[in-house]
Amino acid sequence: MPATELKTELDERTQLAAKYPDWHLWVSSANRPWATRKGNIAPPLENIYAQDARWRMTVDADTWPELAIVLAQQTQLDTANTGRL
After folding, report:
1. Which of 25, 31, 46, 85 is 20 to 30 Å apart from 40, CA to CA?
2. What is the pTM of this model?
3. How far is CA 36 from CA 2, 3, 5, 7, 27, in A?
4. Which pairs with CB-CB distance under 8 Å and at least 24 residues apart come from 23-27?
């Protein structure tokens, strides 16, 4: 990976990590961005996962900008359905 491409990827990851501090961001062996929730987490709606199957503990995408979209969607779910203990 060229140095400028790596710098761009690191900048995107750093910005995303700052925007979503409740998520641990990482890169898989297939070089795809992933995010896993940090902390004591419970699915929304009184821990009944089946009531909102969109909620995820870990998410992935093909690029950092795509992961940003997924994290925004998860944040909306968290806001609508408070699931944190």
Report:
1. 31
2. 0.77
3. 27, 27, 24, 23, 11
4. 23/71, 25/67
